């Protein structure tokens, strides 16, 4: 049976970049772009995209120093370069090309995010996406945790004889499940399509769904070209869409069931009410997020 087509709602060019610390040169798609606010993109409440950029060698590790988070998860996908992470819950890790850091801040952590030491020293191409995935109210104050999702965890799903593949991080593709554990239904994958490669994806009509052209461009639903570094947002109706690559391309695919709860957000804290936000600042100032050395 043919599922109804999920139409594109809009294509968004990458907004002007800004620096996060000295290591992340990012285009903020969510929530700063008009029409990509936290409510529209629920459960994806933030997306920073570091388009492919050549960092020169640096004796100091580039990155962003110790800072807090509460109420959500930070998900960092590395496409080029290597990222290191340390947090006050005692977790740390280094991820490289095609790997993912999934940090559940939940009740609160301090963390720092850097270019991995030898990558900083040698310099090189750096490209990554950081997402904040919201947590439902019942999980916002659960204990922090950390998932390092490495090459060994991500078994590429082969899509065609040319070698197009889907690297599934979270959620499902047909009957296959990605390695990340999530609190609400979320799908995150990257499709690496070879020339003339094609992929059809299905999600429930009410899910929030978007794609980002990480490398190359793709044709969406046989009609619209999504250029490199652009985001394509789908309507919350219809269930099935297609991606076709005229030349080799890599496409990030995000889909999630909206949590549909009130959002009270300020800086690194995303809660449900203003009182919880004030509490987050008070707890942070009282040192309740733990300790982490610079
Ligand atoms: Mn952070």
Classification by helices and strands: mainly beta
Query: What ligands are attached or bound here?
Result: manganese (II) ion
Characterize the largest beta sheet: strand count, sense, and whether it forms a barrel.
7 strands, antiparallel
Cα shape: globular
**Order of SSEs, N→C?**
EEEHEEEEEEEHEEEEEEEEEEEEEEEEH
Overall mean pLDDT stands at: 97
Total DSSP E strands: 26
- Strand coverage percent: over 45%
**Radius of gyration based on Cα positions:** 19 Å
Strand order of the largest sheet: 1-22-19-24-17-14-13
Low-confidence stretches: none
- Helices, by number, come to 3
Portion of residues within helices: under 10%
Distance between the termini: 56 Å
Features:
mainly beta, 294 residues, binds manganese (II) ion, 49% strand
Write the layout of secondary structure elements.
Layout lengths: L7 E5 L5 E3 L3 E7 L7 H4 L2 E12 L7 E7 L2 E9 L2 E5 L4 E4 L3 E6 L4 E7 L1 H6 L1 E11 L10 E5 L7 E2 L6 E6 L1 E2 L2 E2 L8 E8 L4 E5 L5 E8 L2 E3 L3 E3 L4 E4 L5 E5 L4 E8 L7 E3 L2 E3 L2 H12 L9
Antiparallel strand pairs: 1-22, 2-3, 3-4, 4-11, 5-10, 6-9, 6-11, 7-8, 7-10, 9-12, 13-14, 14-17, 15-16, 17-24, 18-23, 19-22, 19-24, 20-21, 20-23, 25-26
Written description of the protein model:
The protein has 294 residues and is mostly beta strands. The model has no long low-confidence stretch (mean pLDDT 97). The chain has helices at 38-41, 117-122, 274-285, and strands spanning 8-12, 18-20, 24-30, 44-55, 63-69, 72-80, 83-87, 92-95, 99-104, 109-115, 124-134, 145-149, 157-158, 165-170, 172-173, 176-177, 186-193, 198-202, 208-215, 218-220, 224-226, 231-234, 240-244, 249-256, 264-266, 269-271. The chain has a 7-stranded antiparallel beta sheet with strand order 1-22-19-24-17-14-13, with no helix packed on it. A 7-stranded antiparallel beta sheet has the order 2-3-4-11-6-9-12. Strand 25 and strand 26 form a beta hairpin. The N and C termini lie far apart (56 Å). The chain contains 3 helices and 26 strands. The structure holds manganese (II) ion. Residues 67, 69, 74, 111, 113 line the site of manganese (II) ion.
